[in-house]
Prior knowledge:
about 400 residues, alpha/beta, Aspartate Aminotransferase, domain 2, Aspartate Aminotransferase, domain 1, 2 domains, seven-stranded mixed β-sheet, five-stranded mixed β-sheet
Amino acid sequence: xxxxxxxxxxxxxxxxxxxxxxxxxxxxxxxxxxxxxxxxxxxxxxxxxxxxxxxxxxxxxxxxxxxxxxxxxxxxxxxxxxxxxxxxxxxxxxxxxxxxxxxxxxxxxxxxxxxxxxxxxxxxxxxxxxxxxxxxxxxxxxxxxxxxxxxxxxxxxxxxxxxxxxxxxxxxxxxxxxxxxxxxxxxxxxxxxxxxxxxxxxxxxxxxxxxxxxxxxxxxxxxxxxxxxxxxxxxxxxxxxxxxxxxxxxxxxxxxxxxxxxxxxxxxxxxxxxxxxxxxxxxxxxxxxxxxxxxxxxxxxxxxxxxxxxxxxxxxxxxxxxxxxxxxxxxxxxxxxxxxxxxxxxxxxxxxxxxxxxxxxxxxxxxxxxxxxxxxxxxxxxxxxxxxx
Length: 389
């Protein structure tokens, strides 16, 4: 009998040892032994899948990756030390001097830095396109274009990109479609169903869910993941066994956690939407969101993030953060604890003022990651801080 992906992901585990443990053990080892020289030779020749060295593979890392593959509906995957190492590996494995990347212009600040500062050093060109202007996406494609990269929902503006459109476009031009699915998570959105070739995550966020460990993961087509594995095996952005063990445990509760995160976010967003101190508020499952119908079509729920613009701009943004009592002010999201951040001065500070304006990162923009606390406690803390702006 076929199992639901959530059930399968929970039950996947490393092979039970002679101790008959119920929960997978932690394999804190840098290397693995062989019975004889022939077995070792065969492993190094890639004739077997035997573990060699934890920079290459590790039972805990495999368990975590296998679980993500099931949740995303992917053929294979590779886990990395952080979300940004996953982003960088997905670029550098497939792009070379003379190649061209098309990316949505609303992306995470560190990804923007990689694309605009570091890819050009390797002779890789790029074109940014607005998240919701399909006609500009196709016009941006050139003969030397090799990849389309996007986030949906975008960080921090929560634009929703039509994955079905992106899948058709990439297939038409024979391009690799590379999707950052971090904000939605694989229990809320599955880009591979729409034609994505690669899907990546900062596992540090919702997958961990408690602000404990760093991690990244890339899943997708077998032949593409094989190339990523070879790149990472040589360059070394490996996920530690301990972090992988923690992340595997966290995946067992991802679905139920995301239901609570999303219900809290929607409840709070509905009650803040017309607040007199706000110019606007965005949440994918609000009817007022510009791509609300699209969000309903490709997302199971609206996720745990909402954002709003304070009428008082930069100074009001600072006052708001300074007067929060419950919400954490930190450079993270996807935690059990609610978090408030000010993207213009933190995660997207490296963008120029013009670049921030192009993706609607305004001086008074506040991003809220709704945690698992009682929803009225989160709401009341936001309300009292707004009154002091």
